[in-house]
Input
Amino acid sequence: MGTAPAEVTQLKLGKLKVARQRLLQRYEHQLFVSCLAGLYGCQWRRSQRTHAQPGHCCCSKRECCSFALIVLTFCLCLVFLYFWSEARNDYNDFDWFNFGNLGFWFPWSIVLLILAIFLFTYVAVVLLLAVCLLSEGQRLYLHWCHKIGISVTLILSIVASSVLTDLWSKEWKTVLLSFQVTAPYLHIGGVVLMTLLSWPVGFHVFRVNMRVRRMAMMVLYITVLVSLYLVPLGMHSPCIKERSSLGSAPALIGHRGAPMLAPENTYMSFEKALAAGADGLETDVTISYDGVPFLMHDKNLRRTTNVKDVFANWTHTSPAMFTWKELQSLNAGSWFFSQDPFGTASSLSADERLQAQNQSVCTLRAFLDLAAQYGKLVIFDLYRPPRGHPYRDAWISRTLDVIQNESSIHSSQVLWLPPEFREFVQEIDPNLQQTTGEQAPVEELQLRHIARLNIHYSSMSEKEIRKYAVANISTNLYVISEPWLYSLAWCAGAHSVATNAVHILKNLQRPLFLMTPDEYMLMWTLTDITSFLLVVIIFVFHWWRERGLARSVDSSLLLEHGSYRQFRTEVNDVWSLSDMSS
Output
């Protein structure tokens, strides 16, 4: 009789071992879990890892902090990656900004993009491993290598975002604009992500013993999910409209010609833009020391000429302080191949490469004659010469003289942008189309006879564009080279855009992301309903599995004492005992 309790315990232990074996065969994938635990915490052997005890937390407080750090780093990396990928329209400006400060050319924008992709991918993989381990009921243990890697990634993301925000804060406006076209698809992505998370959430909700903790998890998850379901109610996008209300495509004005296909502000660049189908041309005008207006954007000649080789001591001298003869001795095309700012130099044929390498500084007169030949509009910034320049006070009259007397262009083809002495200019040549970069009240613009606004694309507003259009004031946006931005400008009603990519945007037959309200409503409804049904099914499955596991494993196995949670605890105890004995 004294040995009966031991025999009962041994029999019970044997039954639990059988139950353990069947449980594992049905619910645990050893190879899969070994890979997860090995990659996450270098725990490749089963004896190195443990299941989370039923009703207990999935990890220690330290590992909870590590998991929270991973989630935080993931969010920051996602923001950094999205910010920089949407800023692609201005990569060229960023690289030239660095060239001006560092003195040498390097594609820093592409390096940052690759870094952002790498950091995000690394953190996303670690987070995915953690979620999969939680879904398998494993306790988390993050290896110290990953802890260092996550910390470094977090620091790099914060530093990069802070520096870019300080130097390039206007790009956040681009991010906000991007939401107008990507928000419907980001909403779908968010709903899909929350639907996938319902598996580990449901798994742990029905394992937790404490009712308060269980309710907190459920309320938090459901709140986030329902908020995502309802996000479209507050969403507005110019690209969600009836196709019949869509206006004509904005006219394309070649920004410094076609700088992706030829050296900027050269005669060849403008020829390329016109050949690609440009409706107008944009440039920057400076006046030489002897009074010849020519095309140059920068405050010195270092970037777009070989001034360092010809006039080594004048590399930082204003272009306006050179005579026209000196400017003619410079090469304005070879830099395009040595620096390849858009990565497109290799697309040129042998004849085009030879032509580009021999480009020289272009005059305003040649630029205007080319536009007149094709009947295209022109717009240009006019830079006032520095002090001591012979034409410092006559730069406007000298430019008007070229337009009226030396070139063949008609004044109505010129969008006059310089704000100085506008009334004087109107008296001299009333046929010029007065253009301004100031978003003033409509009445004020009409009094100044403004016919067109020339504003940065970050100031794009469908409401403002329509307001000015009613007053017969058209809007030109600069500089738009990405198809998604051009599509947004198209949907917002812009009349023209200055672009580096005439040859790309000209091929767009309709705006990207354009959909009717009915199409979007259908997409929204189907996404939410499908997600809701899947979440319900997953939660019901986890409830059924956790409540009926003892019966589904072996219907002949009867538990004489305790609840199913106690049985499951005993199974985990057997795990621990068998691990210790092995």
About this structure: Residues 400 and 425 are 8 Å apart (CA to CA). The longest strand covers residues 280-287. The longest helix spans residues 517-553. Residues 24-28, 550-582 have pLDDT under 50 and may be disordered.
